[in-house]
Amino acid sequence: MYAIQIPSQMHIGSQHGVAQALRSRSCIRKPLLHKASKIACAGLLLFIAGPLTAQVMGITNHTAVDRKIAKDPGATDAVAIAQQSSCAKLKVLKIASSTITSAMYVPANSLKLPSAEGLPATIHLPAFCRVQGVLKPTVDSFIKYELWLPTSSWNGRFEQVGNGGFAGRIRYKFMVPELRNGFAVASTDDGHTNGPDQSWAIGHPQKVIDYGYRAVHDTSTASKSIIRAFYNQAAAYSYFNGCSDGGREALMEAQRFPADFNGIIAGAPANFWTHLMMGMVWNEQALRKTPASFVPVSKLPALQASALAACDALDGVKDGVIEDPRRCHFDPAVLLCKGADGPDCLTAPQVTAVRKIYAGPRNPRTKKQIYPGLEPGAEARSLNWPLWITGKRSEGGAQFSVGNMFFADMVFENQKWDFRTLNFDQDVAMTDAKLASILNSTNPDLRQFKAHGGKLIQYHGWADSGIAPLNSIHYYQSVVRRMGGAKNIQSFYRLYMVPGMSHCYGGPGPSDFGGILQNRPQHSDAKHDVVDALMQWVEHDVAPGEIIATKFKDDNPGKPVVSTRPLCPYPKEAKWTGKGSTNDAANFVCN
Description:
With 591 residues, the chain is an alpha/beta fold. It has helices spanning 15-23, 25-28, 35-49, 51-57, 61-71, 76-88, 172-180, 205-231, 245-256, 273-287, 300-311, 348-359, 385-388, 398-411, 426-439, 447-451, 470-482, 530-540, and strands at 98-106, 128-135, 143-150, 157-161, 184-188, 237-243, 263-267, 455-461, 493-498, 547-552, 561-567, 574-576, 588-590.
């Protein structure tokens, strides 16, 4: 039995009482950390408001049954049988363009997933109904999706997680933490299965559309129908959370399907997709112009150290992080070898290559910038140039393979295409004419999303070597212009630039604040967790201010906290007060 204290002024069964309970810290936390707290909270809410609260909180018959398990362990077998039956019935649910191929009850702590996901063989999760389905909006479509439905701990919300790269698989790794947090959570493979290339796109324009935007939208529509059928009620709120290609998908939803989600998180968005790919091939051409142009990974520490020596202290804090690289005018020519070549210097062809990577691609005829370049200061970090640009063994990084696959399989549809032939004038126009309307999510007109009441949080790491961070600022500024000024977007759109964060996560700076792929933040609240911040904004109209990012030793949340730093709504940035430790967020202000 759990003791519950009901405030004396609370009117039992009234909407006012419900509101008080929903606002109470113990009942709004995501997730409720202790089972006893969950049971007490659910019992309190059901007691004071009955069906009304059940609808608001998502406490349904499934939830009520599992509350009985906590109090009566002997009922476990009967409850499990009932839940299996309820889950299995979803297999015959009729949804337009969708076939549910499997609906299975998964007991607590028994889920097994493919080893390629990098997760333990057996994953500790609450019991849930695992739904697998296929969407066929066209004769050439075959979109796989999964929806996981908590049977005992649903928080009344739906969250769809985005993909990465060219997608091609269900992102279980992104789904796991959100199920733990009580969400009904969905993911899609975007309509194809990944292989050694993207040949699925050759001759299949409808599959490219599925990847571009249709798979995400149709998955959200199908998932909401299944949620309604399983819980006998709709989700109170719907959220989308993605980074990288998932960030592109996030902005695509806000622009093209503004009513799909109440709240959207767009991390490091690859939303200017066609020009991002141009930037990737530009970098490859720069490093492979001649054999002498390539910069081996052994030279990256010297390049990084030189950039930091020039620009680290510009913000008044010397911490191995360049706060705003736009103020840094580092020229790699300072490393030009004065004698024999070695790991501590760059040859003249290497200096030229690095300058091109920092500068980004330009049209050779008009001199117009095609896509921003990369920022200096974190080149040697394992998640930066060794991963994206040079490769760890000088074989070329991930940008090279991604750029080559895009142009060979999607643009020219010729797998013998040679990256050296890409023309940064005519080929840009041709690529945009063919694919920009399908793959790019650069439309700055967010009026419909705003009118729907949607809220959007975007973030990007300043040390990102996969997607140029300036791209996020450019998109934000385009929205400001289109919407008539910054004052007209503050009610629904925030951008956070993250000093020292690599692509989506990691890097030399504090970079854990609840985003996709990140470690769980130090505290699960709206001040430290971007998902909580978005929920507070959507559900309680409390707009986010600063969000505290955390840096753990060795990026391991099991180790001590090394530093914290406030992330500020753009264009503000964190400034040290001049007093106290520079490793403590409390000693910084946003201005």
